[in-house]
Write a structure and sequence with these properties.
6 strands, single chain, Alpha-Beta Plaits, 4-stranded antiparallel sheet, alpha+beta, 96 residues
Length: 96
């Protein structure tokens, strides 16, 4: 089974509020598909996923050089919002 290359938990005010609703926000590799991410999360964390929403955060620009400015976009990842079945939670971040 293909693994998801990059997983990082997002900790913001919005994501912490979603812990109460049994939802988690993760950054993943932009080439990963929803089905691959869902299977990987269910196997790795031993949870049941009800829903999965994904979006790409806006690109951020970088300026390089003073005379000849080169505009470059930073690499961005896909952001996933995962909703788990009631009674399940990701073990590292249990909300009680």
């Amino acid at each position: 089974m293909d693994e998801v290359q990059y997983v990082n938990l997002v900790l913001t005010e919005k994501s912490i509020d979603l812990f109460e609703k049994n939802q988690y926000i993760l950054n993943v590799d932009s080439g990963s598909t929803k089905t691959k991410i869902k299977k990987w999360i269910e196997l790795f964390f031993n949870v049941k996923v009800i829903g999965l929403n994904s979006y790409r955060p806006p690109k951020k620009r970088e300026k390089r050089g003073k005379i000849n400015q080169i505009m470059k976009h930073r690499i961005h990842n896909k952001r996933i919002i995962i909703k788990l079945k009631p009674g399940y939670s990701i073990p590292l971040f249990r909300y009680q």
